[in-house]
Amino acid sequence: MNSPVMLDRRSVLVGAGALIVSFSLTPGFAQHQDVPSPTPPASPPGSLKISPYLDSWIRIDADDSVTVFTGKAELGQGFKTAFQQIAAEELDVPFASLAVVTADTGRTANEGYTAGSHSMQDSGTAIQNAAAQARALLVGEAAKRFDLPAESLRTENGAVIAPDGRRLGYGELVVSDLLHVQAQPKSQLKDPATFKVMGQSIPRVDIPGKVTGGEAYVQDMRLPGMVHARVVRPPSYGAQLIDCDTSAVEKMPGVVKVVRDGNFLAVVAAKEFQSIKAMNALSAAAKWQENVRLPKQDDLASVVTSLPSQDSVIFQRSDPSAVAQKTLEATYTRPYQSHGSIGPSCAVAHLADGKMTVWTHTQGVYPDRQAIAQMLRMPQDAMRLIHTEGSGCYGHNGADDAAADAALIARAMPGTPVRVQWMREQEHAWEPYGPAMVTKLKASLEAGGKIADWNFEVWSNTHSMRPGGAGCLLAAQHMAQAFAVPPAKPLPLPEGGGDRNAIPLYTFPNAHIVHHFIPDMPLRISAMRSLGAYHNVFSIESFMDELAGLAGADPVEFRLKHLDDQRGRDVIAKAAEGFGWRAGERPPPGRGFGFAFARYKNLAAYCAVASEVEINRETGRARLVRAVAAVDSGQVVNPDGLTNQVEGAIVQSMSWTLYESVSFDDKRITSIDWQTYPILRFDAVPDRIDVHIINRPGQPFLGSGETGQGPAAASLANAIAHATGKRLRDLPLTRKRIKDAIDA
Amino acid sequence: MMTLKVNGQDHQIDADPDTPLLYVLRDDLKLNAAKFGCGLGQCGACTVIVDGKAVFSCVTPLVLLEGKQVTTLEGLGSVAAPAPIQRAFMEEQAAQCGYCIAGMMMRAQALLQRNSKPTDDEVRAELAPHLCRCGTHMRILRAVHRAARLMDTAELTPERKGSAQ
Ligand code: FES
Ligand code: FES
Questions:
Q1: pTM greater than 0.90 (yes/no)
Q2: Which of B104, B138, B146, B150 would best serve as a mutation to test chain A binding (most A beta carbons within 10 A)?
Q3: Separation of A339 CA from ligand 2 center, angstroms?
Q4: How many domains, chain A?
């Protein structure tokens, strides 16, 4: 039971940038508090832990308007709409009367990065609880004014209503600091059976603007007096600028300035195309000394496994009673892969009166501010970062770097807003890639056809070189007073990085799982959607099929035989049923069926995917014909939004899996556009994708933005193996590799 | 200075003749819909319609556009009065980040203007120059078919509508 919060604010002292609040406690509560409690008080749910004041999440104004604040950034996942639904539901206000403000160091909580499918879990949970507690406070306030017990009142359409029909609007009730109180550990949430807004496929709030040419992205910003800048990047990692005669460029039409700081080179012009022409001229004038030696691309597996590594056993179980009969071994590899945002990274920066404002599509306004402030040797509170949508990023792409570029250039042009957009070639060559990975698996079956032992080793870089410090930013690495790239750190389990999802959800009597963390990074890498889970799930779920084959078992039954987790079993059953999976069914000629499953990070959403592929045996071309997914992400807020995310995950993962690898020679990245880094085109789009949602009313939100990546990849690989009789273990599963396997 | 006709209006443009249309639209005319994606004619994000045909504005220099009619997404409709193609994309919720979408819609619009009932294969073939990284393809295809139906209904006169039922 959650009684109205009994706190009255007494005074607010504004200190050095911090808001210090003291409370007078009502007697009952105070007495209760006087007793020293043996256990620390429970903390409130989600991101309320890090930002406990209700009014840092929800503001209600006298005119009844309601604003919801989230420290997370909208990246095209549509969560802005979902958050609006959650708040409307728990506050009992009309959906359309709410506005949602996203990540802004000047206005919202510091929720770190928008990553790892955490938005719903952290921010969605915070908003839900903050809204419920705000509603309770409003009811409490109305009870005082009506002089009626709170239990006799109800809320509807932004008002508290008394049994006799009298109503008080939230705007009237919300005296200045009613919501400036800390959240309680528990809230009285609505019964999911009564939901009116949550659980509905409410159309996304951003789509009308985006399909009519509205200003929707940072790329679309036009500030008064704004100029356009382009950066000239070195030809390869670590190249030194030895000479650059800028005089001719400075005389080009529209050119306002050439900015050179060590190896950082940029040009600013009045109009955008003038800046591009000037960039080309500047690039031709720049002389670089290239120093780097990149590893051999066609021998990545041995390169990766021979780099020095820090090894740790991350899971160990033994039961000598399980006796191994037949053993299988396999090695799976993944190349470096690109985020490949369709819109190259962009930012706008403006230095005015000693304050720097940067509009950026970074996933983390606070950490990025810290890094850029360090780079510019400026105090953080003289800098504001405002998240402004960009093209979808799928992890750490060039967003933070473009923000740093813009800030560095804007510092050289006080008073003038500067917009920087990267060129296609720069995005492809300089974004931090998803790291190359190698997995080695070995497992045995016991006489009954169950897995007796399971050995899994994964070699990987870290999966996050996000800023962090300035050293993570290209501009800071390139400037004269350069910042060194900070040492890589593995991301800790249970979420993990290279070892994300390395521990299977299945139960095996003997298991031994090793993470070989590789600190050296021959190519620039960082977080890409699902991190190591993509390759680990691809490996585990491919190998499960290989073992099912060895056991003569149906792949779906074989999985269920090793899985205790009921929600996992449910999504497997749902996907199999939706697909029409039948054990032993022979596919039509040239086709194959595949299945795969994982629970993302072993703690977020569950996802199973069944696929049908078609193989052209002459060319080796594989096409996903149809995919059926089942997903359980706890309480569903917006079913169509969730479906959209999972559909997208399947299609994107299919593109990674069939086509994609970053290419390079001994010095330079050579996959620098869509010709040299081909991705999915419409001719290979499936006939259909069905997503079945298993809703879990009242259960916690489970992040779902990345849950599809691994299962989709393995499901596709398994279907290709089913169609061809050949197992492909090296990503991507290209036409050539499939053709070679068929011909072998 | 040259005259450029965009969305039915004449504009005096002061830009170098080699300036690609994309930058004129975005920079001089302050239009948002056409997007810079690659500048190389490889992705379709910048697509607009010129005299009924879908073109990559990023590789179409201004000098080639004298006397031609340029249409951008802004010229089709608005949030308050969306064109059928815009309604269709809203109704199908056919966007994730949406960065690729304006270009897709313009090519689909050009297709539907010359072929009001394209087959699914025709739509896929037509959209082949366009990339979407979010994986919104299934919805984009559905939205184009929906747009075809909406345009069809919009064009039917009441009598023809009656006889068609
Ligand atoms: S931006 Fe014109 S085709 Fe890519
Ligand atoms: S919707 Fe994001 S690129 Fe297509």
A1: yes
A2: B138
A3: 12
A4: 3
